[in-house]
Amino acid sequence: MAMDERTILRNELRWAAGVGAMVGVIFVAILFSSLALHRAPPSNIETVDPQTLHLAGEFTEANLGTHVTPDGQVTTRIVAAQFAFVPQCVVVPQGKPVTLRLSSPDVIHGILITGTNVNTMVVPGYVSQVRTVFAETGDLLMPCHEFCGLGHSEMTAHVMVVPQSSFRPDANGTASCASR
Amino acid sequence: MLAARRLVLAHLWTAFVVFAAAAVLGAWQMWVRSPLAAPFSTPDNYYLSVTAHGAAMAYVLTTFFIMGFGYYVAETALERTLPSMRWAWLGFALAIFGTAMTVLTVLSGRASVLYTFYPPLTASPFFYVGLVLVVVGSWIWCVLMILAMAQWKRANPGRPVPLAMFATVSNAVMWLWTTAGVAVELLFIVIPASLGLTETVDVGLTRTLFSWTLHAIVYFWLIPAYIAFYTMAPQAAGGRLYSDSMGRLSFILFLVYSLPVGLHHLFMDPEHSTGFKFVQMSLTVLVTVPTLLTVFTITASMEIAGRMRGGTGLFGWIGALPWRRPMVLATGLAFFMLWFGGGGGLVNMSYGMNAMVHNTSWVTAHFHLIFGGTVVMMYFAIAYEIWPRLTGRATQAPQLQCAQLWLWAIGMMVMTVPWHWLGLEGQWRRVAHFDYADPAIASWGPWVDVSVAGGAILLASALLFIWNLARFHADQAAKLTPVPPQRYAVAVHPPDHVPAALNGFALWNVVVLVLMAVAYGFPLAQFFIEAPPQAIVHHVDRAG
Known about the structure:
The complex is a heterodimer. By secondary structure, chain A is α+β, with helices and mostly antiparallel strands. Helices cover 17% and strands 31% of the residues of chain A. Chain A has one helix at residues 5-35; strands at residues 65-68, 74-81, 84-86, 89-93, 97-103, 109-112, 119-122, 128-133, 138-143, 156-162, 174-175. Chain B has 16 helices and 4 strands. The longest helix of chain B has 36 residues, at 43-78. Chains A and B meet through helix 1, strand 7 and strand 9 of A and helix 2, helix 6, helix 9, helix 12 and strand 3 of B.
């Protein structure tokens, strides 16, 4: 092992160039996935008053769950509260874009949906929004994944992904687990 | 004998006693969340335990260890006494008092908010005030470290500060920057809320302030491990440090890049734009650079040692290394786990990909490998290295020390490999018990059982570690053997002088300031430009 100062410096520079290349590749991969494939974190900065969440506006009880607009847009609204989701079960169609909108009236919560890449924090004061397409049918779990108090472990909802043929919203465009 | 001997021992024993207690809690937590029936298994006990485990490991073990080890390095590397013994003991007293206050409050069940706080959940004020006192104690340490280096430089004009001390001061400077975020959060928002002075909090702001601290704190914990890599491992292996300047550069890069990246903990949060998440992701990519430089320099240093010991061929030097020496073994095991932990971390920081793993067991596995596998592993090795000089007694049974290190590494892998898998399966975090009867997660049970076994091995290792250290104090016969003074690894080409930028931190503080203004300026200012709706404080320490 040659160890004069110049050799050491040359080896270090070679390694540094290798490190630079590796870091560059990682960065370009992330850049590609975010810009070309739109794989970005959920980041719509959209505020809502947690203290009046259930009283007025988008997150009142009648608006919760899955709704389909006349032009076919599917939106699912869920309130995450200590220590349950409202509603506890939502139904969504397979293979169609679905917009999930969540908010919290009390403390920080968070959700993931097992078997998918749906994941977001639910922070009081904000609406969390995730757009996704559910690829497979099934009964998926949607647990709260952020510590929200002693009942955190009990806080789990279900997402029923059904084939488009059995996804039948009612006349108002509302689809629920009970009536699907 | 070391002048600061009692000071260092007081810090390190506090760190390790708290560590052992936290290891017991950790093993129990593994048991509770598994399909096996565990005693005392209630949500109240579980979250009390998680809060205690996190606060003890992340705040108490680390802070006391880093302070104690810093005092040791300052005296042995600079070969002069500390600037002020009285202030050092005052820092210790504050930190001990704060620790007692925090621990008692947690044990009373009035602070089960986990160590990362989560306002608007609000614990008893004593929990936060205790932690603030620990931090204030560590600030005294920071000032003493900076002063010690300044005094040495005045006495040795033009000479390069010894690498171990340069790194220690880089950590002290970084810690002052790091704690600013959490200190503002606690002092101006959380403690007033806990006292009932305010009834609402801006949750986005508190999360952003905590994120300021949350990444750099990991490098605060990690720097002593890197000091051991650079200045102790090559010496223990019988070789030379490949390059002194590369060490300095790495520690400077840690200082610069570990701070403006904390937003990567908030990728899944709704209160920040993709723009600033992207900026901080880009800076996070660069945090890998000092670690990758270190991997090269330390591997090359070890190769020197291996070849000096007769190793030949491309890989023959690896087998020739003295693996029965705890410092060498720990370095090898820590590097091994750093690969897994660091690889997991690359996934976490990959922006959109974070959605796949955020708040799953994958993340728990990642930081246990970094913290337990690398940080604490090297804390063990450092303790074995310096305990003879702290107690004046020759090294005790290196076989038992090596066995303890092996147990720790095996336990850590047995625990975290299932966690990685379960994380990819979607196992969510901070759960007191899972319903394994649910067919959706029934298949997780056996994996969780395996991780319980890992936890048990880790606990055995933690207790063996305490036993190994206690033996130094008990063995009177070993006192007769003279203990050589602490030697730090010498570089192949020890520098006569280094540029001012590699011998101090003035320039780098300016760089940090600029980067922090870019990375955190608007993300923090947005909460004041247009104040978002506030959330009502939820007191967990009050009935009803």
